[in-house]
Design a protein that fits this description.
- A hairpin with a 5-residue loop joins strand 4 and strand 5.
- The longest helix is centred in the middle third of the chain and has 16 residues, at about 170-185.
- It is globular and about 45 Å long.
- Strands 2, 3, 6, 7, 8, 9, 10 and 11 form an eight-stranded antiparallel beta sheet that branches. It has a three-stranded mixed beta sheet with strand order 1-4-5.
- Helix content is about 25%, strand content about 25%.
- It contains seven helices and eleven strands.
- About 50% of the residues are buried.
- By secondary structure, the chain is of the alpha+beta class.
């Protein structure tokens, strides 16, 4: 049975139980098993004290971290039963807040590289109450959200994409959260390389900002990922953040080298940001 998120919100928590996600979880285990060998993490990498949903893959090594994978990375294992689309806690955010979150939703046809990826929705969007912390990836943690809507997608290569819309009490709070994303991504290359070194991998992570537009930014991270929050192995992560009023919109999708050759050109990220700001 899935555990209740208390001190940290993890990006794929509400997608547990989707049938196609189960197939993706199996894919992540089998196709990325070799890449994760030898990645026994240090004790400092564990997230003891934070209760989250069950992780998608079991990290290798006797002291593997308890972190739940993020959405654009290794999907979680299917829980005993699917999380409800809307919980009482989520309804407490108020109709106006839910409408603001819903207004930011994108469709599969709006996702980047849709011709090659052939994106499909995993399930209807889910609305939940976030915990005190929302972890986007290894580099970014967002705090202070009062509403959360999530939409998951699956590609023809069985790789995931996820949109998370986080609602805040006001525009100033959402702006502060957006700036926290900028700060985390600014240091993401150093953060990712330090993590790789701790796991005994070559420090090959490269992070670059690919587009900006007002309070909107996009990044590309290429690296040999450490299993835990990410599926292990060589990959490219594409990250987008946009502030729209009192809502922070986050979109994330991955290209895993073991699944298919990389096909997305980040030169298209300006158009993606334009779509997310409308």
């Amino acid at each position: 049975m899935a555990l209740t998120v208390s001190s940290r919100s993890v990006r794929l928590a509400v997608l547990a139980g989707a049938g196609v996600l189960a197939a993706t979880a199996v894919y992540a285990v089998t196709d990325h098993a070799d890449a994760s060998e030898g990645q026994a993490p240090p004790a400092a990498a564990a997230t003891a004290g934070h209760r989250t949903t069950a992780p998608a893959t079991t990290p290798t090594g006797p002291t593997a971290p308890a972190a739940t994978p993020s959405a654009a990375q290794a999907p979680p294992a299917v829980a005993d039963k699917a999380a409800p689309a809307t919980t009482p806690a989520a309804r407490a955010t108020g109709a106006a807040g839910e409408k603001a979150l819903a207004a930011t939703r994108v469709t599969a046809r709006q996702l980047p590289d849709r011709t090659a990826q052939k994106w499909k929705e995993l399930a209807p969007p889910s609305t939940r109450q976030p915990g005190p912390e929302f972890q986007l990836n290894e580099c970014v943690t967002v705090r202070g959200a009062t509403g959360w809507q999530q939409q998951g997608f699956i590609s023809a290569h069985k790789t995931p994409a996820v949109q998370d819309s986080l609602g805040f009490p006001d525009a100033a709070s959402a702006r502060a959260a957006y700036r926290a994303v900028l700060a985390g991504m600014k240091d993401c290359e150093a953060t990712s390389r330090a993590l790789q070194k701790r796991y005994g991998l070559a420090a090959d992570a490269r992070v670059r900002q690919t587009a900006t537009a007002g309070e909107a930014a996009a990044w590309s991270r290429t690296w040999t990922a450490v299993q835990g929050l990410s599926a292990p192995g060589a990959q490219a992560n594409h990250i987008y953040a946009v502030r729209r009023g009192s809502v922070l919109v986050l979109l994330h999708f991955d290209e895993w080298d073991s699944a298919a050759p990389r096909s997305y050109d980040p030169k298209g990220d300006a158009d993606v940001l334009a779509g997310l700001t409308r």
